[in-house]
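Subject: Predicted fold for DUF5060 domain-containing protein, 496 residues

User T.R. writes:
Posting the sequence so we have a shared reference for the thread.
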Amino acid sequence: MTTDHAVERWAVYETSIHSSEAIGNPYRDVWLLAVFRNGDRVVKADGFYDGDGAYKIRFMPDSVGRWVFSTKSNIPSMDGIAGEFECMDPGSGNHGMVRTVSPDHFEYEDGTLYMPFGTTCYAWIHQSEALQDETLAVLKASPFNKIRMCVFPKRYTYNTAEPELFPFQGSKELGFDLERFEPRFFRKLERRIKQLGDMGIEADIILFHPYDKGHWGFDRMSAEDDDAYLRYVIARLSAYRNVWWSLANEYDFMREKRTEDWDRFFQIVQQHDPYQHLRSIHNGTKMYDPSSLHLYDHAKPWVDHVSLQHWDLTVTDAIRRQYNKPVVIDECCYEGDIPRRWGNITGEEMTHRFWEGMARGGYVGHGETYLHQDNIIWWSHGGQLHGTSPERIRFLRQILEDAPGKPVVLDTVKDVPAIGMEGGYYLLYFGVHRPAVFPMELPEGKEFTAEVIDTQSMTIERLKGTFSGACSIPLPGRPYLALRVRSLDSSAMNRQ
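User M.O. replies:
I've generated the structure tokens; pasting them so everyone works from the same file.
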């Protein structure tokens, strides 16, 4: 029996076992797991081979107290090893994993409300160490609390450099051994995931993508190699509380995969992830072409939320109602100036799309694609942010975090999308519309204040007087305004 130091709740406990017993390919032919127990709570976690004769098991304890475990393996020297450790209360900033709790909301496991304000840096972990460090520093100062990132490298426009390390052993020149993983790559990935978690940023891990087209061959592996890859990634990464699983980016552009394959991948992740991290899959589009939309069936039980690529944020509420799950429009185009139709909207338009999606009950993701002399573009490489939308997104995030309770779509407000808490808090977004006055039906006998929010200049102006019952609220008649209406006692409402 081995006894280890205490570990925080929802942190990573790791135990290592060294074995010199030879048995074929240690990545494929050896199996190892541990059964962890805390009172009546029993959790099984798969182990993995980390190279140089070292096998590891990682575990994320979800309850405080003494945990005991025992191993099982087809290698006799690793079978029946027992151990224990203490799990203590979580430290500051450790709220646990994010879960879906309704068609509208996400929460951390400790009950804290989580609203995703995400960004995309597909291949940032495949850049130089210096550029990765720079990206982390920029993220730390940004308004973003989620990042979409790929395991596999990306071969695409502005992305032609060969990474130093790959998920598999080998090289482009000599070929890759798809049955042997590269532990050095995964150690780097894990280090970056932990650093993101320490900053309160969720890592939305994209497991497959089409930006290979046979260059490395990771997009067209055999079913056996696909499945083994998924099991290995889950064994290594699932103990990190800030991990989300995105089965693919633009899954429908991967012509070698069928719906049955994606169903199987979801079920493998569901079966082997002992903590049930959030699971989604992301569609592609020929941007601005409605006929190009081919959505996966998000109603399937293994999908936790809708991850959507769409340029028209007015569809948000309809999709939310269709699937009865939270909707995250992870890609609504990119602020930038590259000559691709998906990559050159203004910061003002990106801000508008964030507000439009929010007011319709969804969450929106940021992306940036400004031309750079060294082709260091945030959307794929990370580095610096050059656009104007991040500060406006920070402004929106602060407004939402200041709201009492959990805002939901308000169907009682007509002619304009709105969220809030009926009878106490209303947040309306007019977008391109610019009425000079807006009628509202507020509760009788209850006084409300009204504030005009300029979403582009990031100003808030309180209107004179108070409002109650059937009333008309005067507006400046400019586009891209929001209206916040709060009861005088709404400040006393607790976040539910």
